[in-house]
Amino acid sequence: MMWEMVMGLEVHLQLATKSKIFSGAANRFGAEPNVQACAVDLGMPGMLPVLNEQAVRFAVMFGLGIDARIGKRSIFDRKNYFYPDLPKGYQVSQFFEPIVCEGIFEVPMPDGDLFPIRITRAHLEEDAGKSVHDRFPNQTGVDLNRAGTPLLEIVTEPDFRTAEQAVAYLKALHSLVTYLGISDGNMAEGSMRCDINLSLRPAGSDAYGTRTEIKNVNSFRFVEKAIAVEAQRQQELLEDGLSIVQETRLYDAERNETRSMRSKEVANDYRYFPEPDLLPIVLDDAYIEAVAQDLPELPGAKRQRFIERYQLSNYDAAQLVSSPTMADYFEATVTACGEAKATANWMLGDLAAALNRENLSLEDAPIGPLDLAGLVTRVADGTLSSKLGKQVFEGLWLREGSADEIIEKRGLKQVSDAGALESLIATVISENPDQVAQYRAADEVKQKKLIGFFVGQIMKASKGQANPQLVNELLVSALTGG
Amino acid sequence: MPDINLATATAAEVLSALENRDISSIELTQAYLSRVDALNGQLNAVITVDHEGALAAAKDADDARHRGEGGVLNGVPLLHKDIFCTAGLRTTCASRMLENFTPPYDATVVSKLKAAGAITLGKTNMDEFAMGSSNETSYFGPAHNPWDFSCVPGGSSGGSAAAIAAGLAPLSTGTDTGGSIRQPASLCGITGLKPTYGRVSRFGIIAFASSLDQAGPMTRTVEDAALMLNAMCGLDPNDSTSADMPVPNFHDALTGDLKGLRIGLPKQYFSELLDDTVANRIQDALKELEAEGATLVDVDLPHTQEGIATYYVIAPAEASANLARYDGVRFGHRCDDPTDLMDLYARSRSEGFGSEVQRRILVGTYALSAGFYDAYFKKAQQVRRIISNDFKQAFDQCDLIAGPSAPGVAFSAGAKSHDPIAMYMEDVYTLSVNLAGLPGLSVPAGLINGLPIGLQLIGRAFDEATLLKAGHRFQLRTDHHRLAPPLAEIS
Amino acid sequence: MSVTASDVAQVALLARLTIPDDRIDEVTERFTRVLDLVTELQQVDTDGVLPMSNPHDMEQRLRADEVTEVNERDHLQQPAPAVEDGYFLVPKVID
């Protein structure tokens, strides 16, 4: 039996506002417990919510970014349940009429194609606090700093069929929200949280199977693993003739398995009703238009532009626009040196590797766009071979100076002077008569292999600075010439 | 002690005496505190008295007056219904749940009245979490009607009404969700105003039903109510439901006669179900208004009866969510030695809330629950709009609507507490006004067998001015509001 | 419209209230009476009528995105029944 995975994703995005969604307390990460929880956040008697305009604006920006219909009249609702990190005993959310309605999000896949995902809706709500279970014996500690942080909950239709699509979506979402500047979109830090709804059905079937919801997946890697492990679990049950229980499951990264959440055993009837302490958010066309005018160039549009303007491949373009920092860095470099393809190669190759190795972000890189441009220019104009270029790159990384300064200091100028090379070649030829004889006796195919020995000797003698193309040319004529 | 009878003094008279330096704030405050100490034992109208705080504030008021400064209510003693959070002063909402709760903040209304110079003497008794019409559900024991101690003072602002009637203070705040200012005002023979929803900030008032609650003045006279309303109302950025409407000077608006004023009489208010003696008192009152130039017209409020059911779905539903925060975690009553989370919640709440509160939470939870939301809550919200439209249509033909504030006078303690529906009927004339968010005023309209009954006037949204003017003219012609219960005088 | 003791118990669970066994019948009876009152509403024709949440159909005001609250933790935690190291304490919750 062939099974097909059907998945929908719910992402909770923390919005990067200065203050909370319903109070003027600070919205910052990492403070001492409960120092950023004011009386409104604590749900103290008589306290009332007032809506943060930036949260509304960010939600509208998101909606415009995915070409969604903006809910011009949206309302808040109370979602009622009891939990220690939910101070009022209800969460203020949007159930009946969300601020962002249906839209389509085009997700760039690794192969360069665009995969359209239908977004059902996105709505505003407040985050709950945090519980710590392992600090106090027999007690749970509750920290309400996070209570009231604005969230945008983004819900997709069950359009995902593979883990690869799911990860591509999350990466694209991260990219979009960082471009818009509405969120850090950081899964590891919790500013982007993803729940996966997953069910299986026989391949070719139209019906939906029973789904489970997987929570607590906080990296792209874990998303892939959780999907794999849960699909496997469901498949085994189904193939044994057992049914899937509709439930919420936690992904355990250490054991690489999902398990049922005990706290969700008590059935919850959320009893949604319109929040009477808040009034409908009414947005007119002028407001929406003004927000649209202020939008930065979005990743999709930028990617297209890069492909057209810089003649980049789909893949390269997609990589370079994945963050605004990277895209800006690329364009600054190209503006300085004019070499788009080469810049892309350096950025996606050596630079990416170095950043990865030292766990640095592009913002903190020791090499800036102008530095890189200097290097690219010197390779392009023949001063450096690409191999020498790597040495210069290393020098730039260690902050030894500009490309030119490093070339000078380390004496890395590529030798392209035919005369100098010819004398080097002559020396090598005279010192290796056996290899020369071998070469002259060999056929074309073998010659191509044997020439490597001589090239190696020249490079050694020139400390790597000989221009490899020129060396090759001169060698061939010197060797065949007799 | 100068010629001022504290048992019946109005705030206007008290201000006059203070301004004329006939008496100092400290003397005045001390005198009222003595009345509270002497009479509260019999009335149980006050839960917490703040002798120290009141006298300190009185001293500040005297100093301010001496400097030629001070707000419009400078030095006037006042009682707050124990539903208003008062920073540093215990606020219980008449519940075991908040028996020892000291708020770290003032309600906006409290701050405003403080800024106006009023002196907080203490916190008055009420039905627990404002749920009731008789002040019999209080954890601190029932309050008694000063006109007859065996009778209820009405509710939920029963303590405030009793306190004003007994002269424990000239001013008190109350809140009104379904009639909780107007009905006790009627039963205790005082004046009570529920402003338009959104007129007065709800910030810092312990919430019962968010879309219905409104704070208002409870006083001896309409003039005092106008003075107090001036100090209480205005846009509050901390309350999203606070209305951004221009605030006239309500005291200035009291002048002028009622020529051309059309007063609507809903036929549903004057049906055969209305007790004759009550109907007579109301008719007498209406004659006085006619004598001032008003004309009477018949109007129709066809869904008056359905208002009760509508209210008793919406209010408990909103309350069930508003009271979910009382869970023993951050404030309020916590049970001893909770074994797990469920035990913490269930026991803290079951111990902390009285039975009427628990009943309403259950009804409210049910009305919102899966499968019932459409038939109960959504339906009630729709009928609410119909009721609101009924009033709008009625106000096409009149400027004020008049009727009794309550179906009868104060009833005996215990008479209705076993029959929830009978208790709910107490508010038949008042709760539709909350559903529609309109302002309502109750003024004393005389006695029936020694117990007071009130005339209710209902105005258009944000038109308290017309309401107060009519009430004031009525009080210039009559002396029902000057009557005081025959309490033992103190020496 | 009658409601059983079991219905009431279920609602009580949702509301985190416990009704002692000796009172459940009384509570159920009172509950039923209130619901009987409420069924009157079914007679009203509400076709096409929008539900009313706020009586004046007001729109939400927006607040500027500024930090206006300072750290008042100790002051706000005064009424708390159980606090340690700045955390509110509850019996241990197992997820």
- Tell me, briefly, the overall form of chain A: elongated
Q: How would you name the oligomeric state of the polypeptide chains in this document?
A: heterotrimer
* Mean of all residue-level pLDDT scores of chain C: 92
Terminal residue distance of chain C: 39 Å
Query: How big a fraction of the residues of chain A is strand?
Result: 15-25%
- Helical/strand content category of chain C: alpha+beta
The number of helical runs of chain C is: 3
Q: Give the helix/strand class of chain A.
A: alpha+beta
Structure characterization notes:
The complex is a heterotrimer of chains A (482), B (491) and C (95). With 482 residues, chain A is an alpha+beta fold. Chain A has helices spanning 53-65, 163-180, 220-239, 285-293, 299-310, 314-320, 324-337, 340-357, 369-380, 386-397, 403-410, 418-431, 433-441, 444-461, 468-481; strands spanning 3-14, 51-52, 73-74, 77-80, 90-93, 103-108, 114-126, 130-136, 139-143, 150-156, 192-202, 212-217, 248-252, 257-260, 273-274, 281-282. In chain A, β12, α3 (220-239) and β13 form a beta-alpha-beta unit. Chain B has helices at residues 11-19, 25-43, 51-66, 108-115, 158-165, 182-188, 222-232, 276-291, 304-322, 341-352, 355-368, 373-397, 420-425, 431-435, 464-477, and strands at residues 46-49, 77-81, 119-124, 171-176, 191-194, 214-219, 262-266, 295-299, 400-404, 440-448, 451-459. The longest helix of chain B is centred in the C-terminal third of the chain and has 25 residues, at 373-397. The model of chain B has no long low-confidence stretch (mean pLDDT 96). Chain B is globular and about 65 Å long. Chain B has an eleven-stranded mixed β-sheet, with helices on both faces. Chain B has 491 residues and is an alpha/beta fold. The N and C termini of chain B lie close together (12 Å). Chain C has 95 residues and is of the alpha+beta class. In chain C, β2 (83-84) and β3 (87-91) form a beta hairpin. The longest helix of chain C is centred in the N-terminal third of the chain and has 15 residues, at 24-38. The radius of gyration of chain C is 23 Å and the shape is flat. Chain C starts with a helix and ends with a strand. Chains in contact: A-B, A-C, B-C. Chains B and C meet through α9, α10, α11, α12 and α13 of B and α1, α2 and β3 of C.
